[in-house]
Amino acid sequence: MNGIWRVVFSCTLTAIFTAVIGYLLYLEQVKVPKLDIHKKFESNYFSKPKFPDDEIRLIVNNAEKEKIGIMYVSLVNFSTKDLLDLPVTIIIEPENVKEFKVLAHAVVGEHETTDSVIQTKKMVFDGNKYYFNFIAQAINRVDGPEPGLQLRLLFE
Questions:
Q1: Which residue of 24, 30, 38, 80 has the lowest C-beta tally within 10 Å?
Q2: Is the dihedral of CA 123, 101, 152, 60 positive or negative?
């Protein structure tokens, strides 16, 4: 009778162990590691009006401009978990470097908060690319297109 209980006990332990391992493998399979990037680009964000005898001038960095554009680069977390203390580097490589110049930039976190994203380095331009470095304290998972981090560039 003692041998039957050992067999029942070992079968029970094996079944429990198999169920736990199967559940852990299932959890790994349903993970969705998706951090999506969305871009929005408006080349005529602010344009100088074209009226006769117009005295409106658009001056940026002591130079008169005809128009200014804006670009949004957004990160959206569609994964199955929140991302914490995530280092983020965004590299912008314009097609025509001579026609694209970043005038100003800002970064916001979820719900337009500025304190949830820390800029770790100043913007760097190496002659071809613009580099932006941040640490996002939290990019929470979402079901819709709500950005967890958004870089906003004002450019000419």
A1: 30
A2: positive
Cα Rg of the chain (Å, integer): 26
| pLDDT tens sequence across 19-71 | 888 887 776 665 556 777 888 878 777 776 676 666 777 777 787 777 888 89
Find out whether 77 and 115 touch, Cβ atoms under 8 Å.
no
CB-CB contact of 46 with 67 (8 Å): yes
Which whole-number Å values give the CA distances from 152 to 12, 18, 108, 124, 125, in the listed order?
Answer: 58, 50, 8, 15, 16
Q: What is the mean pLDDT of residues 131-153?
A: 84
User: Helix, strand, or coil here: 116?
Assistant: coil
Q: Which amino acid does the sequence have at 31?
A: K
CA 18 – CA 23 distance, rounded (Å): 9
Handedness of CA 24, 26, 29, 31 (dihedral sign): negative
